[in-house]
Write a structure and sequence with these properties.
Four copies of one chain form a homotetramer. By secondary structure, chain A is mostly helical. Helix content of chain A is about 75%, strand content about 0%. The structure holds a DNA duplex (21 and 21 nucleotides).
DNA sequence: AATGAATGAGGGTTCATTCAT
DNA sequence: AATGAATGAACCCTCATTCAT
């Protein structure tokens, strides 16, 4: 991975993240990256190839976010750590999730499998905690986290701390 | 509003909803609408004007969805009716919401004010029901409905009935 | 067929004829035709579509050249008229044949069926004239006309009149 | 001439011969030659320089084809040997002529002088054989050989043996 | 000699938009 | 109101070529 390759990826990341894939031209990417337009195609074949590269990196980063949960076995801790994720996101992680959400809604072929895996993990955790409808509870929680993360990404949340506290209370984890 | 104007709006609606605003050309819209491309500009000035028309209609439709809640005064019913919305959506309403969500993520200048109003309504309702953190609860519920609606739009929900039942139980409304 | 469409066809014809298909850009065609580049694609879909249009017209013109022969039934006259063709070409017909030959050599999917038909006609004529190897003679004559026409197109011929006289003598038609 | 230089020449030869000069990019040549694109320019300055190298080699090969004729002094043998050429071409010689013809039609600055020299040789031969219009006969024969060779290159000939026999008969050489 | 990253001009094509009818 | 021809800027991408290594 050369420097210029990184410059291209960074520029594309930011532009896609702010304006979307179709709204951004390879010319704009090249200019922001301080690179000739042709270089994009030498390294990434075409605009979609550039997107794929970004998408792959994105998936790795997001998977990494959830890694700790997958290694956790204590039911309460699984849930606790899951709830915790939206609140401990640093700027870079928010940047990643913003692009992921954006692409997921703009393009039809972008998916996030990790949520499915987390759902299963949560489902088993709720089961162990003797929740009546474990799978449903897992799905429900994922839904909430999805909405919550959306709000965080868009900066539409009033008070992270109290929101988190409320969430913990609802799941009797405080 | 002439017939052709409606054809254009319908075509643009479907195409934007499936592929997004920037991914669709006025040429494609004209073809699907069975109309000359020039007519789009006679009626809507430019592509953005067409989007505005759709967006306006969209807002009206979505506002209408929540109308009943705004007229409701009984706290429990306010919450009940709010919870009920994602589950009683007909195909056309889902179509509307899908486009709204899509545009909201693709473009930066699309907003949905009605949620803010509902949030206030909910906030007061929770207050009357003596919830400790009424506003927070309202925000929290809105977040969940957002995630839930996303899932419904994308057909990512297992069982609407039991999901609704769970939601009602969580709010002691059953 | 609008005026501008004709301008495009004429410009492309001349440029292809002088420089070849791949050596000429749509930009150059548009400039010579005094037309916006986009118009080429509106009328002919793409560069190859433009070529197809020219090729179709070309075939018609060339077929027309040989029409008289196909309607002839007298063996000696069939041969006479065939021999005559390369020598009575006017500027426009030479222009047509030049492009046809050029395209045939540059591109692999350009063919000239009319020569096959003429060959059959000649074959029957030679048969009636009791030539021993009628088909071979026909093929032979076509070969010669091909080389002769090449020379005429490239202006590599010394004296048309005497060349024609020689040809007639060789076939005892004088 | 290094190995890689040869690889480049071979690749370019084949590609030009099949697709033409303008249809082939230096990138394609480098790939087929298993060589870096830059190397083409180190050895041949530019794409045209590569063409020149090929063209020079081509001329040598074609000249060699006719060498025997130039050394012949017996009129009948001159004609006989000239007639013979198109029929004794091996695969490699056909490959050479194919490219030569192709380039001659695609590009305007490619010429084949050897034909002019052969024409003179033939002209003198016909003179010695007391043909009335020696030069014309020479030109005529060259024309035929041109058409015949075209047909052979394109594989458009039915029966080489009988074609050759016919040709010999026409010139009373059998 | 040889590579492969890098460039900038130009390739064909699509875009939103205008205009005459 | 409606069409469809026409435009010119911008699109993604490929080109021949250069340069550092």
């Amino acid at each position: 991975m050369t420097t210029k390759q990184q410059q291209i990826l960074n520029a594309a990341f930011d532009l896609f993240s702010n304006e979307g894939f179709h709204a951004i031209s390879t010319n704009k990417i090249a200019k922001l990256a301080n690179v000739s337009e042709g270089l994009i195609f030498r390294h990434f074949i075409n605009k979609e190839g550039l997107l794929d590269s970004i998408h792959k990196q994105l998936k790795l980063n997001v998977d990494f976010l959830f890694l700790e949960i997958l290694n956790e076995e204590e039911p309460k801790d699984i849930i606790k750590k899951t709830l915790d994720i939206p609140f401990k996101l640093d700027d870079n992680e928010i940047r990643n999730l913003k692009l992921l959400f954006k692409l997921q809604w703009e393009l039809n072929n972008i998916s996030v499998q990790v949520f499915e895996i987390i759902k299963n993990k949560l489902s088993k955790a709720f089961e162990k905690l003797r929740y009546k409808h474990a799978e449903l509870e897992a799905e429900f929680l994922i839904q909430h986290l999805n909405g919550l993360t959306s709000a965080i990404i868009r900066n539409q949340i009033l008070n992270k701390e109290s929101t988190k506290a409320l969430l913990l209370r609802k799941y009797h984890l405080q």
